Amino acid sequence: METNRYIIDFYNQYDEDNRLTPQHGQVEFLTTMRYIERYIKPGDRVLEIGTGTGRYAHALARQGYAVDAVELVQHNIDRFRQNTQPGEQITIVQGNALDLSAFADEQYDITLLLGPLYHLYSQDDQRQALREAIRVTRPGGVIFAAYVISDGCLIDEGFNRENISVADYIRDGLLDGQTFAATSQPKDLFELVRKEDVDRLMEVFPTTRLHYVASDGCALLLREAIDRMDAQTFALYLNYHFATCERPDFMGLTSHALDIFRK
Ligand SMILES: C[S@@+](CC[C@H](N)C(=O)[O-])C[C@H]1O[C@@H](n2cnc3c(N)ncnc32)[C@H](O)[C@@H]1O
């Protein structure tokens, strides 16, 4: 599939394993883990769809949970296997979030979909990935779905870092010049959304939202400042972030958002 080619080429050369390692990357990791730990119970089974190199899957396996993982890109699967430590109860298979037919219905207590929705470009595909994640989750189980947020990325990658040209994006039809709403195609790699898009996507599912979280808040925008912080200041910054990451004020500023809902 041509769509997959773009994703495979990207992740073959991207250092996904170290994305969450710097202090600023820890903000997203620690926030996501904090919410998972709020809901996970001893003996729970976990599925991570689009596990990458397994940062979350391995962290949970090392806490003693049985974790199954699915990943599209062989390069990431190879790193995932290298990262597996003795004693982890963990499996990985190559697969696509759009078709989890290898997995039976209602098997998992905690289902993580932290990445595939970054790379699905139509509402039908996004809903199909969510439908599959919901199907394999037990009634009462909790699903974590992550998104890339357009305004946070435009402010940081566009206006701040100039890694992308906002003017070119408008010229090429990737951004609406009036509303600044984003549209992507597979060749653009990342699907950028706003909270209203996530709300619309979720309207058809009989699930209950538990939290909607600005998972990295301003961490990418402030990455140099956060990486300079000593341990005490970083601990204070994390306290600030945890106290504010569900505030509506932050939902457009964050680069990533986490939708947490119960089946
Ligand atoms: C940004 S990484 C996130 C990895 C990990 N879940 C995390 O949060 O650190 C996104 C991952 O999703 C994978 N992915 C993208 N589309 C997918 C799909 N349709 N099915 C399965 N995995 C997919 C990518 O190959 C990549 O490893």
Automatic annotation (TrEMBL):
One of its GO terms (molecular function) is S-adenosylmethionine-dependent methyltransferase activity. Keywords: Methyltransferase, S-adenosyl-L-methionine, Transferase. Pfam families: Methyltransf_11 (PF08241). GO terms for biological process: methylation. PANTHER family: METHYLTRANSFERASE, UBIQUINONE BIOSYNTHESIS O-METHYLTRANSFERASE, MITOCHONDRIAL. Residues 47-144 form the Methyltransferase type domain. It comes from Butyricicoccus pullicaecorum. It comes from the Bacteria. InterPro entries: Methyltransf_11 (IPR013216), SAM-dependent_MTases_sf (IPR029063). CDD domains: AdoMet_MTases (cd02440). This is SAM-dependent methyltransferase.
